[in-house]
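Comment thread on ticket #2218

A.B. wrote:
> Attaching the input chain for the structure job we discussed in standup.
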Amino acid sequence: MWMNSKARFSLVACLAVGGAVGCGTRSQILERDPTGGVLPPEMVDPIGLYVEADDICAQEVSVDLAEETLTPGSPSDNLAVTEVAFVEECTDAGGQYVIARELDGFREFWLGAHACYFWSSTPPTGIVFGVVKYRQTAGLNNVAPETCIGFPDEPAGLSTDAQTQAIAVFETLEGAQAFYETVAQ
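C.D. wrote:
> Ran it. Output below, let me know if you need it in another format.
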């Protein structure tokens, strides 16, 4: 016998109790469910949610509305997992922007405008991650390089063929991907 009775009892008790109370943390790797499907990572709440406003500005809304806001409601609604940055214009009137770029594509997105102020608190610095809800358009929209709006590792200026409807911001890429998997279904 490779285990004595005390060790065998401890192992059985640990497995029974551990499985029942959920000891340990859940792996970030996709796990298989008993029916053979793949379980997505647990969805996490965003740290910020920004939406298109009636004027050309944007607004910050409660993260409690994230799933409802980003779930596609029309065949023309699209979602993208993105890198996100918070930037301010360098012009006299200024302006705040939440900018994003697709991880596996070419599109850039933004909410914000010249003389538009909508952040309720100090945003994260550097690059964070997000899920963007957007609609493709027939034209191109631009943010001029003279406004100093752009990603830290690229020249200023943005261009897109999309109308950004909402951006949910996450601290981690895994959080953004799990949210995307949930709302894209």
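A.B. wrote:
> Thanks. Noting for the ticket: The chain is about 20% helix and 35% strand.
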